[in-house]
Each structure stands twice: as structure tokens, then as C-alpha cells.
Amino acid sequence: MTDNTPRNSLTLLGLGDMGTALARTWLAAGHRITVWNRTAAKAEALAAEGADVATSPAEAVAASRLVVLCLLDDASIGSALQGVDLTGKDLVNLTTGTPAEGRARAAWAEERGARFVDGGIMATPTMIGVPEAGGYVFYSGSRALFDTHRAALEVPAGARFVGEDPGHAALHDVALLSAMYGLFAGISHAYALIDGEDIAPKDLAPLLSEWLGAMGFFVGSTAERLTSRDFTTGVVSSLAMQVAATGTLLRTAEEQRVSPELISPYLELMRRRLTADPAAHGGEDTAGAITLLKR
Ligand SMILES: NC(=O)c1ccc[n+]([C@@H]2O[C@H](COP(=O)([O-])OP(=O)(O)OC[C@H]3O[C@@H](n4cnc5c(N)ncnc54)[C@H](OP(=O)(O)O)[C@@H]3O)[C@@H](O)[C@H]2O)c1
Question: What is the pLDDT of residues 197-237, one digit of tens each?
Fold first, then answer.
């Protein structure tokens, strides 16, 4: 297909907090950008800053070959782009979704004659256009599309291509976010334990940070054990010992009048792994308990 749109032009649908941050960064980098938002008023400030404002999704899509979507959820993409001609377009979807939604959206785009890449944004709007903030975006799907537009995609934040499966950007995104919430749960429980005691949260904070940093080894060691399926070699904190110690954690929560709801699921998973076969699993690393999670 011939591309008649200027080399550094792109279209962005969605001017929420994230979309607006993306648009400003592309504008600041000298890109010509056409924007559309369901609530038109949100485009006014960007128009003053040099963006072209389209009055419909169809008009916005027609303006550029590269079309970036940053809407609330997958359903909003379907409603915004219903009946819009996508032939020859390169769609980059930065709307958060599940892996299955990414794959279905890729098939949907292909049926309409468009190339497709899904994205997972690992940044907040304040980190967009601020390279030192360390934000980046996972991309997956059409490698050819990614290579064509790589320079533009690297403007708002780092760009990490994680494969041609269009579900894998979302999968990476959600894997990291899920780990983050597990971490938040543990931190929340720790602060609840000291609440009301003569220990200032600000005094616990550096100790907690240091401890979590030291325990970061678990990320790499677990990857190695899952790859080798060897959960026992070199174990110095056995599952049997850790399950025995969970009683102390639960009794302390009770003494401190703190609900164990945030930590008990993981403690219970370790206990299940041990009791399934104490002789086989007692000497394992806790990484072995991961095998119980897959349904
Ligand atoms: N903000 C963050 O920290 C962050 C971080 C990573 C990823 N993300 C992802 O980025 C995406 C956008 O986030 P955001 O922070 O910009 O959200 P937001 O401020 O809530 O904006 C949502 C956007 O989606 C539009 N929208 C919602 N339903 C629509 C529909 N049915 N048809 C057309 N447009 C519709 C809204 O239009 P109106 O203005 O008309 O309501 C608005 O432009 C989300 O998928 C979010 O998960 C956000």
C-alpha cells in the first residue's frame, strides 16, 4: 500500500490522562499529530499546542498511517472504531487489556486489512516523556509494524518488543502488575502490624526497603528453579521450616489484632505443597509451590 501521510505523522484516539501525556510528548518531539476524543472538550488544550483535532474516529484514522489507541478498555475500541475503514493502517493499541483481548483485537484488525501491535504501558502519565523516570511500554504483534514505527514509539517511553504473539505484551504487563500487588499486600500487612505501637512507620520504612531489596534474589532463583524443575538443590530455607514458621506470623497478626487476609493465601499455598507429600517436598524451596497454581 502507498503511504501518503507525512513520515512523522500519527493519529491518537483517546485523550484521558495517559493519552494526553502521550500526545504532548509527541508534539514536543515535533511529530504531527491528529487527535480524537469522545468528549471533544479534552482536545481543546492540545489544539492550542499544535495538534490537529478530528471530529470523528473515521476522520482521525484517515489522517495517518500510524494510529495509536489509548482508550479506557477493549470494549471502547470496538465502539469507537465500529464501521471505520482500517485498510492499510498500522494500529498500535496502548489500551490495557488481557492477552486474549490482545489476540482477538489482532485478528479483528487483520480482518480489516490493518497491521496490529498491542502494548502494555509500564508507566504513569507523569513518567511519559521523562526518560529518567524509567517508564517503558511492552509491545507485541507485528514485528514489521514495530520496526517501521520504532522511532515514533520510542518518543513517549522506552519500547520493548516481546514477540509476535499479540497477547504477550498484555501478559508481560499483567505479570509485572500482579507481582507488584503481591508486594503491596506484604508491605501493607507489615505496616498494619506496627500500627499503634511505638514504632514510627518512617522508621520501619528503610528497614522494609532494605529487606525487600535483599529478598529480590527470589526473582532470579525462582526462574532458574522453574527452568530446571529442581526445587531442592542448594536449599537453605526449606519449605518444612518455613511452614513451621508461618504459625508465628499468624499468631503475631492475631496478637497485633491484624487480619491475616493479605498474607494467609501464600502461607496456605506453602502448607498445601508440604502436606501433599512432606517427605518429597519438605526440603524444597518455596518456588515448588508455584506448581499448584496452574489450573
Ligand atoms: N493512567 C495510568 O496511570 C495508566 C498507566 C498504564 C496504562 N494505562 C492505560 O491507558 C489507558 C487510558 O488510561 P487513562 O489514564 O488515559 O484513562 P482515563 O483518563 O480514564 O481516559 C479514558 C479514555 O477512554 C475514553 N473512552 C472511555 N470509554 C470510551 C468509549 N466507549 N468510546 C470512546 N472513548 C472512550 C475516554 O473518553 P472520554 O474523555 O470521552 O471519557 C478517555 O479518553 C487505559 O487502558 C489504562 O489502563 C493508564
Answer: 999 999 999 999 999 999 999 999 999 999 999 999 999 99
* Cα three-residue angle 185-215-168, rounded to 5 degrees: 70
Q: Which CATH superfamily is domain 216-292 in?
A: N-(1-d-carboxylethyl)-l-norvaline Dehydrogenase; domain 2 (1.10.1040.10)
Which of 11, 13, 17, 18 best tests ligand 1's pocket when mutated (most atoms within 8 Å of CB)?
18
**Above 90 in pLDDT, residue 196?**
yes
Domain boundaries, the chain: 9-171, 216-292
pLDDT at 10 over 90: yes
Select from 252, 222, 241, 254 the least CA-distant residue to 281.
241
The residue whose CA is least distant from atom 32 of ligand 1 is 76
Pocket test for ligand 1, best of 22, 71, 93 (most atoms within 8 A of CB): 71
Domain spanning 9-171: CATH 3.40.190.10: no
Closest CA to 124 of 22, 241, 197: 22
Helix (H) or strand (E) holding 161: strand 158-161
* CA 242 to centroid of ligand 1, rounded, Å: 43
pLDDT tier for residue 8 given thresholds of 50, 70 and 90 = confident
Collapsing DSSP to helix, strand or coil, 137 comes out as: strand
